[in-house]
């Protein structure tokens, strides 16, 4: 997606990157557990030292290869490369001696590392959770399809400009993200001694925010464990959905997820197209006839479905060739 498909080794690079992303999440989870043991965390870090050194080195090699492939392509094709991707554009700035801001190779690699670790599995997980909830709630699925048909018609796919006119769709996305935040925990280091909910928190302490619990707190949400998109159509709950103290799938404050808009536009285009065009026949799922998506969560630092979401898409409407 980001470094488009024109590099020769693209599939291989993407596969390597996916593997590395999941290894680094695994490592991050282990390091987070080590942190719980205070000064004894050093033992855990010592135990993980090989991985701690190895993962960044492998990322560096991977991105160096991708950079080299893009540089070779730029040499071959000259300044007028067709369909430039983000990496091509950054490389132009990198090689431009007159550029206002000079980029280093390390900065470019770090930027892509952020995009990959922050932006790939999170968005994919969100799409699966949203579609899973919709498939498991056929009445919501039907209502959403009717909304799309009435606003967009049956001749074209939904585009970004339609989203403000699809309140039920927005409510479904919000509700699924409330129940299944792909990043359920995030942290902050306290810069000063402070008091929080009656507890004294010393400076330097790492605080973990539990977005999952906050967004299922029965003191805040009625029937907190149920998928009820309609709640976000009510003024009171819709206001809760804009309140960054209680609705936090993307975190909040100055370290809030910078990829919110990008992931929303991916979620919007993919989920609406999947609902507009297909019915989903779940294979080997839950329930007496195996037709429900199993919504159990896999353990890890990000929140993914534990069991694969296996289903056959059955064409409902061929909007693509309309
Ligand atoms: C559904 C998809 C996504 C979810 C649920 C999500 C969620 C989050 C959360 C909860 C945080 C921590 C925020 C905080 O500490 O307050 C975060 C940080 C971050 N996200 Fe996302 N994210 C998503 C997609 C993306 C995308 C598409 C990108 C980039 C293309 C991205 C890049 C980042 C980065 C770089 C950070 C660290 C920001 C910082 O520390 O200043 N995320 N994300």
Structure description:
By secondary structure, the chain is mainly alpha-helical. The chain folds into two domains: 10-117, no CATH class; 121-184 and 210-315, Cytochrome P450 (Cytochrome p450), CATH 1.10.630. The chain is 49% helix and 8% strand. It has helices at 10-35, 41-47, 49-77, 86-95, 105-119, 121-136, 138-152, 167-179, 211-214, 235-240, 260-277, and strands at 185-189, 194-196, 199-201, 206-210, 278-282, 311-315. The chain has a two-stranded antiparallel ribbon. Strands 2-3 form a two-stranded antiparallel sheet. It has a two-stranded antiparallel ribbon with strand order 5-6. Mean pLDDT is 88; it is low at 1-9. Bound molecules: protoporphyrin IX containing FE.
């Amino acid at each position: 997606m980001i470094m488009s498909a024109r590099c020769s080794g693209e599939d291989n690079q993407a596969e390597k990157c996916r593997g590395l992303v999941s290894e680094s999440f695994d490592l991050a989870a282990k390091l987070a557990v080590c942190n719980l043991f205070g000064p004894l965390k050093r033992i855990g870090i010592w135990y993980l030292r090989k991985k701690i050194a190895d993962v960044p080195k492998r990322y560096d090699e991977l991105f160096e290869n991708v950079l080299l492939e893009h540089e070779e392509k730029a040499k071959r094709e000259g300044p007028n490369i067709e369909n430039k991707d983000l990496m091509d554009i950054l490389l132009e700035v990198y090689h431009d001696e007159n550029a206002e801001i000079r980029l280093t190779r390390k900065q470019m690699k770090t930027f892509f590392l952020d995009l990959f670790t922050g932006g790939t599995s999170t968005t994919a997980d969100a799409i699966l959770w949203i579609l899973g909830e919709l498939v498991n709630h056929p009445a919501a699925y039907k209502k959403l399809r009717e909304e799309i048909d009435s606003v967009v018609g049956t001749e074209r796919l939904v585009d970004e400009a339609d989203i403000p006119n699809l309140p039920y769709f927005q409510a479904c996305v919000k509700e699924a993200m409330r129940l299944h935040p792909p990043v359920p925990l995030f942290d902050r280091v306290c810069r000063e001694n402070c008091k929080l909910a009656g507890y004294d928190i010393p400076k330097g302490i790492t605080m973990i925010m539990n977005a999952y619990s906050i967004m299922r707190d029965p003191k805040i949400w009625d029937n907190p464990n149920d998928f009820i998109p309609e709640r976000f159509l009510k003024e009171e709950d819709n206001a809760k959905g804009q309140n960054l103290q209680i609705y936090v799938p993307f975190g909040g404050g100055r370290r809030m997820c910078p990829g919110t808009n990008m992931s929303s536009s991916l979620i919007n285009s993919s989920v609406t197209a999947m609902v507009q065009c297909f019915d989903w026949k779940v294979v080997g799922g839950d329930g007496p006839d195996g037709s429900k998506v199993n919504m159990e969560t896999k353990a890890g630092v990000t929140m993914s479905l534990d069991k694969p979401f296996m289903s056959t898409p059955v064409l409902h409407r061929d909007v693509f060739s309309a």
